[in-house]
Specification:
- The complex is a heterodimer of chains A (167) and B (340).
- Chain A has 167 residues and is mainly alpha-helical.
- In chain A, 51% of the residues lie in helices and 8% in strands.
- Chain A folds into two domains: 1-44, no CATH class; 71-160, no CATH class.
- Chain A contains eight helices and two strands.
- In chain A, a hairpin with a 2-residue loop joins strand 1 and strand 2.
- The relative contact order of chain A is 0.05.
- Chain B has an eight-stranded antiparallel sheet, covered by helices on one side. In chain B, strands 6-7 form a two-stranded antiparallel ribbon.
- In chain B, helix 2 crosses helix 10 and helix 7 packs across helix 8.
- Chain B is globular and about 65 Å long.
- Chain B folds into two domains: 12-237, Glutamine synthetase/guanido kinase, catalytic domain (Creatine Kinase, Chain A, domain 2, 2-Layer Sandwich), CATH 3.30.590; 249-337, no CATH class.
- In chain B, strand 4 (101-105) and strand 5 (111-118) form a beta hairpin.
- Chain B is of the alpha+beta class.
- The chains are: A mainly alpha (167), B alpha+beta (340).
- The A-B interface holds A 66-67, 69, 77-83, 86-87, 93, 96-97, 100-115, 119, 122-123, 127, 130-131 and B 22, 24-28, 30-31, 108, 134, 137-138, 141-156, 158-160, 162, 190, 213-220, 223.
Chain lengths: 167, 340
């Protein structure tokens, strides 16, 4: 399409609807500049990028449902916003924790006494499996055997003598 | 748990153990409102009061209403961190009467419990904070996750939340330029090496704080065992060998160095803090290798704390200008070291 005012190709196209009247304007780069009509192709790249980024930043970026912390904030500050962030960003949490804990990805230390017994057994089994793995890798077979015995005991707890004698 | 008594006092100035804990169902401190911070303080102080029957009694200090000088003194005594001293908003610290145990509330985590003791005594420090942790547990629900253990604001504290550290005095390794080997060995064992006041501080007076970086994937006992039995005894032996070598190779030069530093501090009228740290470090070496028989090790150890600006101002009972602080420091050093 040609410019309304010369024979050069039009680069700016506008449709103006005013008082029920429909009017189209087609201008070349020179006449568009003279008329003060912005040419989208000539806008600075940072302004265009800002327009592109804004909707993504507000609509796509996931937030922790409990505290509203975003993954970007966690990566920037190296701090979680609340305990629920650990699960809200499960995959990123695993990568982040492993990177600062020499690859470790399972707690094997103390657990609070006020968690229920089933959870404790499940947790203790997992801890022992990790310990067994380390013992085998270190070729500490005697220690490994003791850990295996503890695992077997956890899987099949036998009644103690006291329980057997109870009347 | 590894049995341990305070030993290696000539090289290990002090040992510490700390636990990081957070109250469940609340954001971490940096995301909290002042109202939430106050609620945390109420919960934690209630748990501390309730635990007092099974653990040692602690005195509560509300840092929001404490003067900048008193906060500085607490920091210089390693009872609170620099960020905790400088922060604003509701926060506090509970301190044992002998200042060997403290519980920071609303620092990076809701709760940070520390125990500190002289010499190589990490295991006994850990026993104390574990007792406190267990005594508090029935009265507060800590944030805990099956996979990630005790949940912390920073992933570097996830899992056990336990940090062991030892303040090592390594002047001979510094003189013989062998510290890089220690740093490399520490790095290989996932240990951090910091200065006298921990994170961000320089290795003032040849003091190096060594601590475990890993808190997850191993039990507290395993972490303690690695810390107590690997790096610390190794570095202690390494420093001791360097001291012996210095004496054997050139006793006169090392004697001249330490006695010259002693003579200067026995007569100086104005002393800057970093100069005092540097010269006291050499005097401490002289005391430990029997080149200075008339100064007690305990006197020198105490001076590292007493020469700090906050302690000087507290002793003077007034704010001191820079020059007044230098003069007060020099007077204290002359008095303690038997100068004129």
């Amino acid at each position: 399409m040609k410019c309304d005012q010369c024979n050069r190709p039009a680069v700016v196209h506008q449709v103006i609807i005013s008082n029920g009247t429909h009017r189209e304007i087609h201008l070349c780069e020179i006449h568009a500049t003279e008329a003060g009509v912005p040419n989208p192709g000539k806008q600075p790249i940072n302004k265009l990028m800002a327009k592109i980024k804004q909707p993504i930043a507000t609509s796509v970026m996931p937030k922790c449902p409990s505290c509203g912390t975003t993954l970007t904030h966690i990566r920037k500050s190296s701090l979680f916003g609340c305990p629920d962030c650990y699960d809200a960003f499960a995959q990123a949490t695993r990568l982040l924790v492993e990177s600062v804990q020499a690859g470790a990805h399972q707690h094997v230390g103390r657990n609070p006494k006020n968690i229920d017994a089933t959870t404790t057994i499940r947790y203790e089994s997992r801890r022992l499996v990790e310990e067994l793995d380390r013992a085998v890798r270190a070729e500490q077979y005697e220690r490994a055997a003791k850990i295996k015995a503890k695992l077997a005991e956890l899987a099949d707890p036998r009644p103690t003598e006291d329980e057997g004698d109870a009347s | 748990m590894t049995a341990e008594t305070p030993v290696d006092m000539d090289i290990v100035l002090s040992s510490r153990a700390r636990l990081a804990r957070n109250v469940t169902d609340l954001p971490f401190v940096h995301r909290m409102t002042d109202e939430q911070r106050r609620r945390t303080m109420t919960q934690v102080t209630h748990a501390l009061d309730s635990a007092a029957a099974h653990a040692e009694p602690l005195e509560w200090v509300d840092l929001e209403s404490t003067s900048a000088l008193d906060r500085r003194v607490l920091y210089e005594r390693h009872l609170i961190s620099r960020p905790h001293a400088d922060a604003t908003g509701p926060r506090g610290v509970a301190v044992a009467e002998d200042a060997s145990l403290s519980v920071m509330v609303n620092e990076e985590d809701h709760v940070r419990m520390h125990a500190i003791a002289p010499g190589r005594s990490v295991a006994s420090c850990f026993t104390r904070i574990r007792q406190l942790d267990e005594a508090m547990e029935p009265f507060v629900d800590w944030a805990w996750h099956q996979t990630w253990g005790y949940q912390s604001a920073c992933p570097t504290n996830a899992g056990t939340g336990v940090r062991f550290s030892a303040m090592l005095h390594l002047p001979a390794l510094r003189l013989t330029r062998e510290l890089d080997k220690v740093r490399q060995a520490a790095k290989d064992l996932h240990l951090a090496v910091r200065g006298y006041y921990g994170e961000g501080s320089e290795s003032s007076g040849s003091f190096f704080q060594v601590s475990n970086q890993i808190t997850l994937g191993r039990s507290e006992e395993e972490l303690l065992d690695t810390f107590v039995n690997s790096i610390v005894p190794g570095v202690v032996e390494y420093e001791r060998a360097a001291r012996a070598a210095l004496l054997k190779q050139d006793r006169t030069t090392i004697a001249d160095r330490v006695l010259r530093d002693l003579a200067i501090l026995r007569s100086a009228q104005l002393v800057k803090a970093d100069e005092a740290m540097r010269r006291l470090s050499m005097i401490r070496l002289g005391v430990c290798i029997d080149l200075i028989p008339d100064v007690e090790l305990g006197t020198v150890n105490g001076l590292f704390r007493e020469i700090q600006a906050g302690h000087l101002q507290q002793a003077a009972g007034t704010t001191l200008s820079q020059n007044e602080a230098r003069a007060a420091r020099a007077t204290l050093l002359r008095q303690r070291l038997g100068g004129g």
